[in-house]
Design goal:
Layout lengths: L15 H31 L4 H31 L2 H24 L5 H29 L1
Helix pairs in contact: 1-2, 1-4, 2-3, 3-4
């Protein structure tokens, strides 16, 4: 009998830990977005939030949300197809997300302890995810 797979071996290089972390990050980001939005609304009602500073804080949050969609999509796609380019682009978008997260952590108008906790968890997840992406890219290239 003819078998097209005879003599061929294929090794799966995609990373299950990366896939799981991308999935968990997607769920966590929804929680992060809603909690941060609620806190911004809370801070604007309770504290004397300057009107000219409310818009940048909201803009950063929504920019993070817009960036998160292609970041996760490219991460999933690159990992599942074992392609370096989408995973590398996702890694680049992760750097942008880290910068915006640091803004939320250090430079927004009012930073509550809940902000610190939410952003610390998100930054930790970004760091772990970035390490797994670099490892996956190295496995795909070799």
């Amino acid at each position: 009998l003819f078998s097209p797979w005879k003599g061929r071996t294929s090794e799966i290089l995609s990373s299950l830990p990366l896939h799981i972390l991308l999935y968990v990050n997607g769920i966590y980001y929804i929680f992060y977005f809603l909690a941060t939005l609620a806190m911004i609304i809370y801070k604007s009602q309770v504290f004397s939030y300057p009107d000219d500073l409310l818009a940048p804080d909201l803009a950063v949050l929504f920019l993070m949300a817009i960036l998160e969609v292609p970041r996760l999509y490219l991460g999933f796609k690159g990992n599942l197809t074992e392609a370096e380019a989408p995973l590398g682009l996702s890694l680049g978008l992760t750097v942008g997300s880290v910068v915006l997260c640091v803004y939320q952590l250090l430079w927004q108008t009012y930073v509550l302890q809940a902000d610190v906790l939410l952003n610390a968890v998100l930054l930790s997840a970004y760091g772990l995810e970035s390490g797994l992406k670099v490892t996956a890219i190295a496995a795909f290239v070799s």
